User: Fold this.
Amino acid sequence: MASSSNGNGKHTKPPQKQHRRPGLQHAMHPAPRTQPPPYRSADKLKDKVALITGGDSGIGRAVAVAFAKEGADVSIVYLNEHEDAKETQRLVKKEGRKCLLIPGDVGDEQFCRESIEKTVEELGGLDILVNNAGYHWDRGPEGLEGLQPEHVERVMRTNLHAVLWLCQAALPHLQPGSSIINTTSIQAYDPSPALLDYAATKAALNNLTVNLAASLGPKGIRVNAVAPGPIWTPLQPATRDSRKIETFGADTPLGRAGQPGEVAPAYVFLASPTEASYVSGTVLGVTGGGAVF
Assistant:
């Protein structure tokens, strides 16, 4: 079933719920669109190596495919969504590039370090680190009262702690011209009480992005972030009330949720050593019109 309009120009989706977390892209309807709007690739990332966390589906899959189109080999770090990850691998290989799959929990410091080392060993180096893995739990009207220690801990470890450990482990392998890209969120600027802890981690990532840019700039390493708005990814049906899915993204100025393929070109731009050679410490919003400042 495809998205439809509710008669007021607002695009809607059928209510749906997934009962496992992280969510699965192949179980979503309509399926998220991985391919970006028509554009002509130009070897912007020729022979680069990128590691993308959360690369099995959603934004991560779209970024992996876009990077492959631009000539990069890709390492995909994901939790346990093996079917989705294999589809990402198929799409990357279709572009003639290598794709390494590394399952595990980025909330574990040792796994973060091992994933970097395995990428370097198998793909011959590391030029681009995309910290994209994320987790949230929509608590609805409960807000603060609904916080549970195990959920908060998972949000913090996945969204924030992992970024620190991955950046630390990657640093010895990054050369001048390398790029780190963090996935933050419009929630860092316009937070929802239902996503209290998630929004806090995304605001922290904005701060960390600017701080790392200042710290790593003298080494010639650029650090930026992309702040998506409401994007149709498996995280939504897996962590939101099914009734909220129908109008997800309808309150944006563009009146709809974005597609992963519409976000991926922002990562290509920031990763490119020629297109964005003087861009660092920037948070680029892809929000359908929502303000990120």
In short: The first strand starts at residue 4 and ends at 5. Strands lie at 4-5, 11-12, 49-53, 73-78, 99-103, 128-131, 179-183, 222-228, 283-286. Confidence is low (pLDDT under 50) at residues 1-9.
